[in-house]
Structure formats: C-alpha cells, structure tokens
Specification:
0% strand, 2 domains, 138 residues, mainly alpha
C-alpha cells in the first residue's frame, strides 16, 4: 500500500511540474512547434539529458533495481509501424497540444478538451491492441 501511495505522490508531483512549467498549455506547445518560443523544447532536452545520465548510472550499477533484481532494457526494432506511429503521435500532439503525460495534467487543471484528447488516446491504444493481436511485429 505504501508503494502505491508513493507512486501516486510521484505522479502528482510530475503532473504539478508539467502544469507549473507550462507543458500542459496549448499555446506554449504551439509556440514550440512554430519555433517562436523554444523553452519547452529546452525543458524536454533537459529531461532527455537527465534520463540519459540515469541510464548510464543504471548500466554502471549492473542494471539492478533497488532490491537487486536485474532490469532488462530491450530495444524495439525500427520498422514501418514505428515510423507511422511516430508520425501519428506527432500529428496528435500538434493538433491537441498534449501528449500522454500532459493530457492528464490538462484534465487535472480542469481543461475539458483534455478529456477529448484522453478519449483519442484510449481509442488509439485500442486500435494498436487490435493491430498487435494480428501482427507480431508490433
């Protein structure tokens, strides 16, 4: 139970950080895509660098979690579906102004359009599951 509360608190902190940084603001995302304001791109770049450092540290520690269990990190092959999925994700992000993380922050902020984006996210996940069921490459 304490672990679940910890995850909930971490998620709430992450949502707060997304909201506070402006990452859940449609205009902020629009300005990033148009190149008018690259603060959000710099924020994401910083997150990528921090994640990369974390992955390097994880590898240096032998890819073990806090309990000593091995963590397996496998690469997915690049294929046509990956490219199509990336394009659809980018189009959805540009049109809705939200990605899976920020849509939850938008809903938490009371933005009604976030609910529509979340519905689209669920629909896309459902379609992917149907396609993956019949195609082992996914």
């Amino acid at each position: 139970m304490a672990k679940k509360i910890g995850f909930l608190l971490a998620g709430m902190f992450f949502g707060f950080a997304l909201s506070r940084s402006g990452a859940s603001d449609y205009n902020f995302i629009y300005y990033m895509f148009t190149g008018e304001n690259l603060k959000l791109a710099l924020l994401m770049g910083t997150a990528i660098v921090v994640g990369a450092i974390g992955m390097i540290a994880l590898k240096a520690l032998g890819n073990k979690d806090i309990t000593g269990k091995e963590i397996v990190i496998s690469k997915k092959p690049l294929n046509t579906y990956t490219v199509i999925g990336g394009i659809l994700f980018g189009i959805g992000w540009a049109v809705s102004g939200a990605c899976p993380g920020t849509v939850l922050a938008q809903i938490g902020e009371g933005k009604i359009l976030g609910l529509l984006t979340f519905a689209g996210l669920l629909f896309g996940t459902y379609v992917y599951a149907l396609m993956a069921e019949n195609n082992p490459k996914l």
